[in-house]
TrEMBL record:
Pfam families: ABC_tran. InterPro entries: AAA+_ATPase, ABC_transporter-like_ATP-bd, ABC_transporter-like_CS, P-loop_NTPase. Gene3D superfamilies: P-loop containing nucleotide triphosphate hydrolases. The keyword Nucleotide-binding applies. It comes from the Archaea. Residues 22-246 form the ABC transporter domain. This is ABC transporter ATP-binding protein.
Length: 272
């Protein structure tokens, strides 16, 4: 078990269930002011959250509420000031901004990350074949990352986060830039990971996705408010036509609003 913890004044009790893949208790985080006359930013003020194996957890909240900060702390890439974080097993983290090497091809990127995860060549090839097929980017395998569109780069970003089938998968707005088919493929993939026992936490802005999660945490003023998405809450697991239309719209709003920094046009994608 890989346990990481910090802080002496944890106000909560760690969830010690053997099925828990990450447990955050009473986590606090403030970004200190680094310049004169600027204020420090208190982001988390006693945030508590648990993710179990085979559970898909949503983290929602308005812009700037601290979702990415929380996820960075869960992933272990960001320090927290107080509280406890316990992790069990391996972790995959898909940050909001792809952290890939521009001059590597897609194949070389799989090889690099797979080797870092300690996977054998056969395991890397198997994972690459699975993910390039499911997310439909097989034909870009010999392209350099810098020549991919934003959506295809995001497919690579997502794939390398989960190619080693971690116990815990942390996804920060993973479908930014995805087209509708890929958006649906992403959720099929998430379902498959769920059945394989992976605990998945996803930062999402799309309200109509709520019924895809087992639990939703709403982050507001530094606190996480937990909402169980049960069968008796009036939400159907089969989306209605209205839901589908709304999700489709929301997905494209998400895509359009995501900024052009990571995005290339189709024409750019074709150029080498
Ligand atoms: N490195 C940093 N230094 C100082 N302040 C920061 C830093 N990173 C984030 N913040 C501030 O912390 C707050 C939370 O930011 P964070 O990115 O975690 O929010 P978010 O909920 O993920 O936002 P969004 O929905 O826009 O992605 C914001 O006020 C942000 O400006």
């Amino acid at each position: 078990m890989d346990i990481a913890s910090k802080g002496d004044d944890a106000g909560g009790t760690a969830n010690s269930s053997g099925d828990t893949v990450v447990s955050a208790n009473s986590v606090e985080k403030t970004y200190d002011s680094v310049l004169p006359f600027t204020r420090s930013v208190e982001v988390l003020d006693g945030a508590t959250l648990h993710v179990e194996r085979g559970q898909v957890v949503g983290i929602m909240g308005e812009n700037g509420s601290g979702k990415s900060t929380l996820m960075g702390i869960l992933a272990g890439v960001l320090d927290h000031d107080a509280g406890e974080v316990e992790r069990a097993g391996s972790i995959g983290w898909c940050p909001q901004e792809p952290r890939l090497y521009d001059r590597l091809t897609v194949d070389e990127t799989f090889q690099l990350f797979g080797t870092a995860y300690g996977m054998s060549d056969d395991e890397i090839v198997e994972a690459r074949a699975w993910l390039t097929e499911v997310l439909d980017f097989e034909r870009f395998r010999d392209r350099q990352i810098r020549h991919l569109s934003g959506g295809n780069r995001q497919k690579v970003n997502l794939s390398v986060a989960l190619m080693h089938e971690p116990d815990l998968l942390l996804l920060d707005e993973p479908y930014t830039g995805f087209d509708w088919e890929t958006f649906l493929a992403f959720w099929d993939l998430t379902e498959e990971l769920r059945t394989r026992g992976v605990g998945v936490a996803i930062i999402s802005h799309i309200i109509n996705e709520r019924d895809r999660f087992d639990v939703v945490y709403e982050l507001h003023e530094g606190h996480l408010h937990r909402q169980e998405i049960g069968d008796d809450d009036g939400l159907s697991s089969e989306p209605t036509d209205d839901d589908v239309a709304c999700e489709r719209t929301a997905s494209f709003i998400d895509e359009a609003g995501a900024g052009s920094g990571q995005r290339a046009t189709a024409g750019q994608e074709e150029s080498e």
